[in-house]
Amino acid sequence: MDFFKTSSLIFINGLHFPHSTRSPLSISHNEETERSMDNGARQPHIVFLPSAGMGHLLPMAELAKLLVDRYHFTITFITFSEYSSKTQEAFLSSLPSSITSLSLPPIPLSDLPEDSTIETRMSVAGARSVPYVRSLLLPLLSSTRLVAFIADLFSTAACDAAKALKIPHFIFIPTNLLFVTLMFHLPAINAKLSCDFWELEHPVLLPGFPPIPGTEILNPLQDRKNECYKWMLEHAKRYCEAEGILVNTFDAIEPEAANLLKKEEPGRATVYTVGPLIRAHAVAGEEGSQCLRWLDSQPTGSVLFVSFGSVGSHSTEQLGELALGLEASGQRFLWVVRSPVDLKSAGSNYIKAPSADNPLAYLPEGFLERTKGVGLVVPSWAPQVDVLAHSSTGGFLSHCGWNSTLESMARGVPMIVWPLFAEQRMNSVMMVEGAKVAMRLKARKDGIFDREEISRVVRVLMEGEEGERLRKRAKELEVEAEAAMTEAGSSSVALAALAEKWKSFPTV
Asked: Which regions span the lipid bilayer (predicted)?
């Protein structure tokens, strides 16, 4: 299949260029002159710089496809080679021909402490990439009508390369307005803090959102002494300096914040809600087809989909409690199981390949046999967007990562939220208390969700009155999500305004 075909790379002056991308250095003098003269008539071009991880690349790619299809832009992705994978290469090769990619040379990070967080490593990589990004932008300036540079939330320092070349720079936020609001207010909050967020007696109050307990503030901000905290403050400053911030959300899911942030405010970047940017379908293969065939045989709305994203894992004890809780609930389920890790390292697989272990070997003895007629357990992966779109799926037990949350809302599926790391705890507060489309489990004092609690909440979602109320609300948001992306919808209008703005920029 073409999807699994990876493009070869060639080297020019120490930089990686995809074979499918013509080197600007190969253009003849006459052709270069013609291109310069025709600069105003050529398609506008945008460069995207995602941070590491498919969760960052996927929504950016959906945005790129919209810009190509609706507004006739051409796009170049610049990626970090040290975080490349066969999955990423295959995905980039599958994109339309108007979207090409370049790879930065490896960015040295060996001097960082071994316990550096992934957010720190991504931030440092962005800062150290500036000269290399500039070297890639220079030939694009002469070979394309380059109108904008868009970095994602952890690559903001790389915008210095665009600024030096007078290329308008923007920030893409793959999560939500809650994150953006917190970051806009972070410098002021930090100035008043005398302790870590987790030590706060009172919740954090952010305009347009329910109170956020300090313990639920995103992980990178939980230790003020950690280098990661300093980087988040740096990103917060750079967000305000950008010419615009694109956010992968839609107004109806965060209505009060959307109204507030869309107002122009001195010293703050303009905010554009352009989501939900999600895939229409997954490339299923035989494993995915098995899931969908099984769903075909289940009653409408009867199945709880259980998945914690591509990297979310639990301890062996927690995995066992989850299994026994699902069994005790008596509800139908489709569960994507990953091999267990230490509970404190639930996000430790962020950039790594899936475990070679067989995850099914860690399940309680006899579990698969006892639940054979009720549940389907698959190792590591399922075609999530297709599972959530299936008529048999009636609920989603999720880590509350923002991509998964948007996919669930776009298909009208209510959630049980089980946050693990990053900003997922904040997301869960918003989905339970703000959007009112989710339920949350209560942990024991040792942090474990026991089988009784899991069984209880699953039954409430799938059978109870509260579950029915959440289902109704989820269906309302499904309609709103679809409307946002129609021609007259809020997200489409925002993107159209941006596209016109970019097209009007004079070339450098």
From this structure: none
CB 132 within 8 A of CB 104: yes
Catalytic annotation, pick one of 29, 38, 72, 152: 152
In 3D space, the residue among 322, 338, 363 whose CA is nearest the CA of residue 457 turns out to be: 322
Output the pTM of the full model: 0.88
CB 409 within 8 A of CB 483: no
Active site residue 56: yes
CA dist 98 → 94, 336, 366, 477 (Å): 11, 35, 52, 32
Q: Which of 16, 45, 56, 235 is catalytic?
A: 56
Q: Report the distance separating Cα 408 and Cα 113, nearest Å.
A: 37
pLDDT digits (tens, 9 = 90+) for 96-142: 999 999 999 999 999 999 999 999 999 999 999 999 999 999 999 99
Torsion angle (degrees, nearest 10) of CA 442, 447, 449, 452: -80
In three-state secondary structure terms, 136 is helix
Give the total residue count for the chain: 508
Helix (H, G, I), strand (E, B) or coil at 491: helix
Tens of pLDDT, residues 355-407: 457 889 999 999 999 999 899 999 988 999 999 999 999 999 999 999 999 99
Known catalytic residue: 386? Answer: no
Contacts 24+ apart (CB under 8 A), 287-294: 287/378, 287/381, 287/382, 288/381, 288/382, 288/383, 288/386, 290/378, 291/334, 291/376, 291/378, 291/382, 291/383, 291/386, 291/387, 292/383, 292/386, 292/387, 292/390, 294/334, 294/376
